[in-house]
Write a structure and sequence with these properties.
The complex is a heterodimer of chains A (376) and B (329). Chain A has 376 residues and is mainly alpha-helical. Chain A has 18 helices and no strands. Chain A has two domains: 131 residues, Orthogonal Bundle (Cytochrome Bc1 Complex, Chain D, domain 2), CATH 1.10.760.10; 152 residues, Cytochrome c-like domain (Cytochrome Bc1 Complex, Chain D, domain 2, Orthogonal Bundle), CATH 1.10.760.10. In chain A, 52% of the residues lie in helices and 0% in strands. Chain A is globular and about 90 Å long. The chains are: A mainly alpha (376), B alpha+beta (329). Chains A and B meet through helix 15 and helix 17 of A and helix 6 of B.
Chain lengths: 376, 329
C-alpha cells in the first residue's frame, strides 16, 4: 500500500521535472530564435505593466525601511539639489517650465514627469531610488555611492518640486546666471543656451555673483593649480561626487586649465555680514593660526594661508556650511584617495564638532586675500 | 637533513647568542645601574637553577628512592623546614638584597652635576628635550649623553602609557600621561645602545625604538652646542627650493626648524635632522632617499603614525625637500 503511494509520488515528481526542463528549453528557444520582441515602441501588456510596477513599489518600500532621513527643509540643501537636478535629471523627468524631452518620453517605461506625476514616495524611498536607480527602467544609480549627502540634497529638492513656479525654479537651478539673448545665427550654429545645463556658474557663481547655496564652494580667487587638480580628480573619479564627476568628465585638459584660470582671477566676494559667536570665532582663530598641538592639530594656516602652496585651497571667506560638510566627509572616511584628501583626512579626524563649527565660522568671517601662493 | 634534536639546539643557541650580542641587551651592562641589575639577574638565575636541581632530586627520590629517604621526605619536619622556612628566608633575603641593590644610585633629583634630559613618549616616537643655557633644545628619537656624567631622565607621555627602556644602561620606567617619572642612569663606556618602548602603546609599538649614544664629555658638549644653534641656511639652490616648499606645503604646521617660520610642535623638531642617524624613529637609516620615502609613504614605514602621506609632490620636489632636510646638520 505504502509502496504504491511512493511510486505515484515519484511519477508526479518525474512529470514535474520534465515539465520544467521543457519550459526552460522552450524559453531558450524563444530567446534563441528571437521571437521575444524587445521593442520599446511596443510597450508592455497592461498586466505586465501592472506587475512590474507592483514589484518595483514593494522592492523600494522594503529596501528603504532602514533609512532615516536627515532634516531636509534647508534652503541651501534645496538649492544644491536643484542645481544638480537641472543638469542631471530634467532631460528625462522635466522640471517646472521644462517639458520632458520627447526622446526620453519614448523610453520604456517612460520616465515620470516629476513636476506633475510623482508617486507619493516617502523621503527614504526617494533617497533609495536616487541612490540605486531602478533596474530595467533606465533610471541610473548615483555616480558616487558614498556621497549620500549629495543624494539627500536631491531628495530635499524633489520634495519641493511641485511647489515651484517656473521662475522660482530658474532662480534655483540657474542661480544668478544671466543668459544673453542669442541671435538666430548663434542659435543655428551653436545651440540654445537657455538651459545652460553644463554651466559652472549656475551653482558656483561667476563674475560678480556668488553660489546660491552655502553648501557650494566659492571658487573665486582660489589658486588655479588647486582648481585644476580638483577638476582632474573629479574627471578621473579619484575624488568622488555625483554632482561634479559628470560635469568634470566632459572637460579636456585645456578646458580644465582655462576654467581654473578664469575662476582664479575672479575677485572673491565680501563675507556676508551676519551675527557671529565671538567666542566660537576666537576658538576658530586659535585653531587656524596656532593649531592644537595637544590634539595633534596643526595650524590650518600652515597650508591654507594665502602664501601656501598653490595646490592647497584658500579658506578665507569660504562658505562655512561647505567647509563643515567637507570636514564631516573626511571624518567619515571619504576621499582619502586623492593626494590632498590623504593629507587632510587624518587631520579632520582630530577635530571635534565644536572645533569644526569654530574653525569654519572663523574662516567664513575673513576677507579673502588674493594671492597666487607658491608655485611648484 | 639536520636531525630535529640538533636543529632545536642550534635554534636555542642562536636565540641565546642574539640576546648576548650587544647594543640592546641587559646581559651586556654598560653602566653601574645596568651592572647591578645584571648581578641581581645572575644571582636569581643561579639560585633558581640550584632550587630546580633540588626539586628534581626530591621528585626522583619520592618516586624511586629507598624507603628510608621517602619517609624522611614525607615527614612534617621536612615540610616545615624545606617548604616554609627555607622559601620565606630566601625570598626575604633576596627582596632585601634587591631593594638595597636598586636603590636610587646616588643621583639626587636635584643633583646639579646631573644632566637632565626630558623624554616624552608619543605614538610612536620620542621627544627629547635638553636644557642648554636656559633654553630648551629639542630633538627626537636619539639621545646623546656624556660618558661618566650622572643622567636624570625626566619621563612623561603625550598620549598613552609608554615605557622607557635602554637595557644596556638600566631598567625600564613607565611613561604615564599626566605624571612625571624619573630614571637615574650613568654610562661608563662610549657606545651606541638601542632602547625600545617596553609597554604596548598601539599599532607601531614594535617600531618605537631609540638610540642612546654615549660620547666623551668634550664631544658631547660640542654636540649640544651645535644642537642649540638655529638651523643651517640651505647651501644649494635645490636645498633653498626645498626650504620654500617645506614652508609652503605646511610642514611647519607640525615641525619646528628653529630660525625659520616653521614652528609647529605636533611632530619632531627637525632643526638638525641631518645630524641624526635615522629617519622615522630607528626604522630607516638617515639618507635622502629615506627622507623622501618617509614624506611620501611614511604610513608604510611606520603604520598609523600621525603624519599624513604627502603625495602631492613630484620626485623633483621631494628631492629638493630631502636635500634641504639632510642639509640641516
Amino acid at each position: 500500500m505504502a509502496n504504491a503511494n511512493f511510486r505515484r509520488i515519484g511519477k508526479v515528481l518525474a512529470w514535474m521535472a520534465a515539465g520544467f526542463v521543457g519550459l526552460a528549453a522552450a524559453a531558450l528557444l524563444v530567446a534563441w530564435v528571437g521571437l521575444f520582441n524587445v521593442a520599446a515602441s511596443r510597450g508592455h501588456w497592461a498586466i505586465v505593466d501592472w506587475f512590474l510596477a507592483f514589484g518595483m513599489r514593494n522592492s523600494v518600500e522594503l529596501r528603504a525601511m532602514a533609512i532615516s532621513p536627515p532634516p531636509l527643509d534647508n534652503p541651501d540643501l534645496i538649492a544644491l539639489g536643484a542645481g544638480h537636478f537641472h543638469g542631471g535629471c530634467a532631460f528625462c523627468h522635466g522640471a517646472p517650465g521644462i517639458p520632458v524631452s520627447p526622446i526620453a518620453h519614448h523610453m520604456l517605461p517612460p520616465p515620470p514627469d516629476l513636476t506633475t506625476s510623482m508617486r507619493p514616495w516617502a523621503d527614504a524611498e526617494l533617497f533609495w531610488i536616487v541612490k540605486h536607480g531602478i533596474k530595467y527602467t533606465g533610471m541610473p544609480g548615483w555616480v558616487a555611492l558614498n556621497r549620500e549627502d549629495e543624494i539627500w540634497a536631491v531628495v530635499a529638492f524633489l520634495r519641493k518640486i511641485p511647489t515651484f513656479e517656473p521662475t522660482r525654479y530658474r532662480e534655483l537651478a540657474l542661480g544668478d546666471l544671466k543668459l544673453s539673448r542669442q541671435t538666430g545665427k548663434e542659435l543655428a550654429t551653436v545651440e540654445s543656451n537657455q538651459q545652460a545645463a553644463g554651466a559652472c556658474a549656475r551653482c558656483h557663481g561667476a563674475e560678480g555673483t556668488v553660489p546660491g547655496s552655502a553648501l557650494v564652494p566659492i571658487l573665486h580667487g582660489q589658486p588655479a593649480e588647486f582648481l585644476a587638480r580638483a577638476l582632474q580628480e573629479y574627471a578621473k573619479g579619484s575624488r568622488r561626487s555625483g554632482f561634479m564627476q559628470p560635469m568634470a568628465s566632459g572637460l579636456d585638459a585645456q578646458e580644465i586649465r582655462r576654467l581654473a584660470d578664469y575662476y582664479s582671477h575672479l575677485a572673491p566676494p565680501q563675507p556676508k555680514p551676519g551675527t557671529v559667536d565671538r567666542s566660537l570665532v576666537e576658538r576658530g582663530r586659535q585653531l587656524a593660526t596656532e593649531g592644537d598641538a595637544a590634539n595633534r592639530v596643526p595650524a590650518c594656516n600652515a597650508c591654507h594661508a594665502s602664501t601656501a602652496l598653490a595646490d592647497y585651497p584658500r579658506l578665507a571667506g569660504q562658505n562655512a556650511p561647505y567647509m563643515a560638510r567637507q570636514l564631516a566627509l573626511w571624518r567619515s572616511g571619504y576621499h582619502t584617495a586623492t593626494a590632498g584628501g590623504a593629507i587632510m583626512a587624518p587631520i579632520a579626524l582630530r577635530l571635534n564638532e565644536r572645533d569644526i563649527a569654530a574653525v569654519t565660522a572663523y574662516f567664513a568671517s575673513l576677507r579673502a586675500a588674493r594671492d597666487g601662493g607658491v608655485q611648484r | 637533513m639536520i636531525p630535529r634534536g640538533r636543529l632545536a639546539s642550534i635554534c636555542l643557541a642562536l636565540i641565546t647568542l642574539a640576546a648576548c650580542g650587544g647594543r640592546q641587551s641587559a646581559l651586556n651592562p654598560q653602566g653601574p645601574e645596568a651592572l647591578r641589575l645584571t648581578q641581581l639577574g645572575w644571582l636569581l638565575f643561579a639560585l633558581g637553577a640550584g632550587i630546580l636541581v633540588l626539586v628534581v632530586l626530591a621528585t626522583a627520590v619520592a618516586v624511586r628512592g629507598p624507603d628510608r629517604l621517602r619517609t624522611l621526605l614525607a615527614s612534617a619536619r621536612t615540610v616545615i623546614w624545606a617548604g616554609v622556612v627555607f622559601p620565606v628566608t630566601t625570598l626575604t633575603l633576596l627582596l632585601g638584597y634587591g631593594i638595597w641593590l636598586t636603590r636610587g644610585g646616588g643621583i639626587a633629583l636635584d643633583d646639579p652635576a646631573a644632566l637632565r634630559v626630558t623624554v616624552v613618549g608619543e605614538q610612536w616616537w620620542w621627544r627629547v628635550v635638553y636644557q642648554h643655557r636656559g633654553t630648551a633644545v629639542a630633538t627626537a628619537n636619539e639621545i646623546r649623553i656624556p660618558v661618566g656624567r650622572p643622567l636624570l631622565f625626566v619621563l612623561t607621555s603625550a598620549d598613552v602609557i609608554h615605557s622607557f627602556w635602554v637595557p644596556n644602561l638600566g631598567g625600564k620606567v613607565d611613561m604615564i600621561p599626566g605624571r612625571t617619572t624619573h630614571l637615574r642612569l650613568r654610562a661608563d663606556q662610549p657606545g651606541v645602545f638601542r632602547g625600545q618602548c617596553a609597554e604596548y602603546c598601539g599599532g607601531s609599538h614594535a617600531l618605537m625604538a631609540l638610540e642612546v649614544i654615549s660620547l666623551s664629555e668634550p664631544e658631547f658638549e660640542s654636540w649640544l652646542e651645535d644642537q642649540a644653534r638655529p638651523a643651517a641656511e640651505p647651501a644649494t639652490t635645490e636645498a633653498r627650493r626645498g626650504q620654500e616648499l617645506f614652508v609652503a606645503a605646511g610642514c611647519g604646521g607640525c615641525h619646528t626648524v628653529r630660525g625659520t617660520p616653521a614652528t609647529g610642535t605636533v611632530g619632531p623638531d627637525l632643526t638638525h635632522l641631518g645630524s641624526r642617524r635615522s629617519v622615522g624613529l630607528d626604522t630607516l637609516p638617515m639618507t635622502e632617499a629615506n627622507i623622501r620615502r618617509f614624506i611620501r609613504d611614511g604610513q608604510h614605514v611606520k603604520p598609523g603614525n600621525p603624519m599624513p602621506p604627502f603625495r602631492i609632490f613630484s620626485q623633483a620636489d621631494l628631492g629638493a625637500i630631502a636635500a634641504y632636510l639632510a642639509g640641516l646638520q
